[in-house]
Amino acid sequence: LKKGFNQPLRLAKIDELIDIEDSRVQVAELDDVSRWIELAINNIPCFAPHVNDLLKMEEYFDESGLEGDDLHLWRAYRNLFAQRYAGVYDDILEVTDIIASDMFNHFVRHPLVKNSKSRFASGTIPFTFLGRTEDYYYTYTHDMERPVAVISIPQGRVSSVWNWLAIPHEIGHNIFSHFMDFEKDIWEKIRRALSHSRFVINPKKMKKMSGKKVIRTIWHFWLEETIADVFGILFTGPSFVMSRQDDAIKAANQAGSVNSSIWDIDQMLMTKHPTAFLRPLLGSVMLREIGFRDEADRLDERWYNTYPEMKENPELIWVDDKEVEKTELLTIPLDEMLRSFEKIVDIVLYHRLGCLNDSLLTDIIRFDNPDYVIAKVVAMELLEGTCEFARTVKPRHLLAASRIAFETDPENADLIHNSAIQGLIHFKKHHSD
Ligand SMILES: [Zn+2]
After folding, report:
1. Distance from Cα 250 to the centre of ligand 1, integer Å
2. Residue 36, Cβ density class (10 Å: 0-12 exposed, 13-18 middle, ≥19 buried)
């Protein structure tokens, strides 16, 4: 028997144990970074050309540690590596990457934003990721030059090209979060514009807040999602709103109501997405602003016919659902919400933004009539099974065209999907730089 075995049990100070344990966890986390980066370099073909960038990434996390924002950023990268390594979705990711690169590069490499500050390194490569990453919830405070942008695509309906109209929206999130001062610049202007108007609201349980303050608070909560939709429309035009209607019906079914939103008054939290019934109508307002009046009218007609109860006395409702019994806080006439949005859309599309080197957003991206003509012609060709297009037909046109074709002839969904996929791969092989 070993000497001393029958001594009384010795227990360390618990603080000391926790300290030592914490430092071991930190070392293990950084070791985790090295393991995944090594995997990416050696075993994931799409990362092979980016060895130096990945090593820089490792160096960065080595110095900064994995806390707060950095931990979320790292998890987004790790999820990306894992999905690419698994290879299960390679056929889809190959094509979604083509669409994302087209739009992402168009924006970040645009000469007008050459001197704008963003968190992207000069040659940042966008990689799509199917599913949610933690990435887009956070605005990073550090200034790492990010060699890789993770573009998350909701995984639910990856089976059809026209559902990838979510990609331009997600690119919008990326730009919103990673161009320095984008949010600040744009919100400053919107706040000022809204403060010059009066708005009618109908308070129920909620008192003590002026119409102006209510409207301003709502738009502040909705700002990022709305801007992401602006990107969707500026990249793909009317097709984006067609698909937005689809999504809004699903959102309304999930929420159990098309015209109400949740507002937790104590925590001052609200749903981040505009009310389901309103959201496609915001899209139509934007379409009219960029010259698609007829298309917007047709889309609104279909939308109101989908929810005939919203035709008379249409209003939006905000409820606090913390208690068993939901509390109706206030209602706002739909027209009043749309009127407030008209002020916002003008600023977003046609005001110079400091963060974009004093350019207009619409100087950098804009879906105009020639784009629409291309999309409509390509839509007809997709329905004929054509899958090779000229260089002028960009992936964003193909994306828009796939939706137009699907709307025109839904029975031919398979043909449209397959032709569009082939068309995108043809673009990558023959026309991409
Ligand atoms: Zn979003």
Report:
1. 15
2. buried
Tokens of 171: 């690119």
- Count CB neighbours of 419 within 10 A: 26
378 Cα: distance to centroid of ligand 1 (angstroms) = 28
Q: What's the pLDDT score for residue 144? A: 60
Tell me the pLDDT band of 385, cut-offs 50, 70 and 90.
very high
CA of 7 to the centre of ligand 1 (A): 63
| 153 CA → ligand 1 middle, Å | 10
Residue 216: strand, helix, or coil = helix
CB 387 within 8 A of CB 422: yes
In the reported structure, the alpha carbon of residue 15 is separated from the centroid of ligand 1 by a whole-number distance in angstroms of 43
State the distance from the centre of ligand 1 to the C-alpha of 214, rounded, in angstroms. Answer: 22
Q: Using CB atoms within 10 A of its CB, is residue 282 exposed (0-12), middle (13-18) or buried (19+)? A: buried
Rounded CA separation 398/375 (Å): 7
For residue 170, how far is its CA from the centre of ligand 1 (angstroms)? 6
- CA–CA separation, 102 and 141 (whole Å): 27
Distance 173 CA to ligand 1 centre (A): 7
pLDDT tens-digit map of 286-311: 999 999 999 999 999 999 999 999 99
User: Residue 30 Cα, ligand 1 centroid: separation in angstroms?
Assistant: 31
Centre of ligand 1 from the C-alpha of residue 307, in Å: 24
Tokens coding 249: 């019906």
- Cα(139) to centroid(ligand 1), Å: 14
Q: Which of 154-163, 263-272, 290-299 has the lowest mean pLDDT?
A: 154-163
d(CA 166, CA 247): 10
Give the count of alpha carbons within 13 A of 229, CB side only.
Answer: 27
Contacts of 78 (CB under 8 A, 6+ apart): 32, 36
Instruction: Determine the Cα–Cα distance for residues 19 and 15; give it in Å rounded to an integer.
Output: 6
| 146 or 7: which leads in pLDDT | 7
Q: Does residue 67 carry a pLDDT above 50?
A: yes
* pLDDT tens readout for residues 332-361: 999 999 999 999 999 999 999 999 999 999
Q: How far is the CA of 357 from the centre of ligand 1 (A)?
A: 25
